[in-house]
Amino acid sequence: MQRALRLTTALVSVVAALTIANPLSASATNTGPSTDGVIVWSTRAADGSEHLLIARADGSHQHDLTKPATDTKDSDAQISPNGRWIVYQHDQGDSETIHLVRPDGRGDHVVDVGCVNPCKAAAGPTWLSNERIAFTLVSGLSNPNNGESIALYTARIDGRNVRRLSEPSSDGVYEEQYLRAAPDHRYLTFLRRRIADETAALFRVAPDGTELRQLTPYSLRVDVNDLSTARRGPTKDLLVFESGGRGDPTKPFVDLGTVPATCRSLSDCTSKIRWLTDNAATGRRNGNPQWSPRGTSLVFTDRASGAEPNVEIWTMRYPESTRRKISTSPNFDYRATWGPAAYGLGPR
Questions:
Q1: Which has the closest alpha carbon to 15: 202, 263, 189, 265?
Q2: Cα 28 to Cα 269: distance, rounded to the nearest angstrom
Q3: Full-prediction pTM beyond 0.70?
Q4: 3-class secondary structure, 140
Q5: What is the C-alpha separation between 94 and 104, in angstroms, rounded?
Q6: Which terminus of the chain, N or C, has fewer Cβ atoms within 10 Å?
């Protein structure tokens, strides 16, 4: 049996009080991806630096969200449930911090979550509510032979009230990332990477730390994933994920798949995995999937092969195959996120 993710009593009250705003009404046609909201992604310049771009969900009005800068990488952006803030990871030199910025580029600032020695990095932020974020802290352990602590934490958006979510005994054994809250707050999902063999699986857990349930086999080596915010319909409680080689590290292709967070056992979950792409024969790489605000469509990356430098952002209506290209540059574009456009704050 896997170790339970121990949530503090304080976190239980926080999760119970989460108030994720209802996304904007969908305006997509029945034959194409949704065009509601905004999409934010990272683009890599020739010098290796990365900054964020933002566009409307139909691909129009693309422009810089963060400023390009040498030796700087902005990535892993996530839009708040009400669309008023974008949280992202900001890497500059040896520093990895969490930032907030408005959708119009104003108010960019670091969120001080108290990452000081032996803490090395704050990374992979996600939203639990409009007022609270989750993230991973990377810290050295007292015994360096035991590796590092790569654990989930949560805090208010001003950096206060930091709480650890991961069980202390996971240090040096697991890396835990990408915490998501179900729209009705009945459960949380997260990615657990097993350090010993570098495999990874998705898990579900109740807000009080009980009912830990493995949703995908470790051998599938899932990575970037997202939990649908739909409150009804075919994508309710549905996790979308990427898997390199469907678990075979010698295979160059990357596929997108789904698994319901409501399955009752690992065998049940495994039987309910559905693949959205089938790239084994071509070596194509589709990754970084994220749901649209109402869970009707997906945004993801498309790359012809691992050697192709041009990676594009596309959207797709679920479960249809109708797609729309979003990015327009020849650069390496990746890690897109899709959220509502707050009134007066979206791209102009």
A1: 189
A2: 30
A3: yes
A4: strand
A5: 28
A6: N
Residue 169's alpha-carbon distances to 53, 148, 288, 294, 322, in angstroms, are: 39, 12, 29, 37, 45
- Which residues partner with 151 through β-bridges? 137
Rounded to whole angstroms, the Cα distance separating 216 from 204 reads 10
Residue 138 to residue 195: CA distance in whole angstroms: 14
Quote the DSSP letter at residue 311.
B
Q: What is the DSSP string of 13-76?
A: HHHHT--PPPPPPP---TTS----SEEEEEEE-TTS-EEEEEEETTS-S-EESS---TTEEEEE
Quick check: 200 and 221 in contact, CB under 8 A?
yes
Domains of the chain (ranges, CATH numbers)? 9-19+45-339 (2.120.10.30)
Q: Which residue has the tokens 């020695």?
A: 117
Give the C-alpha separation, 275 to 42, whole Å.
25
- Alpha-carbon distances, residue 38 vs 57, 127, 228 (angstroms): 5, 16, 16
Instruction: In whole angstroms, give the CA distance from residue 348 to residue 336.
Output: 19
pLDDT per residue over 93-127, tens digit each?
Answer: 889 999 999 999 999 999 999 999 999 999 999 99
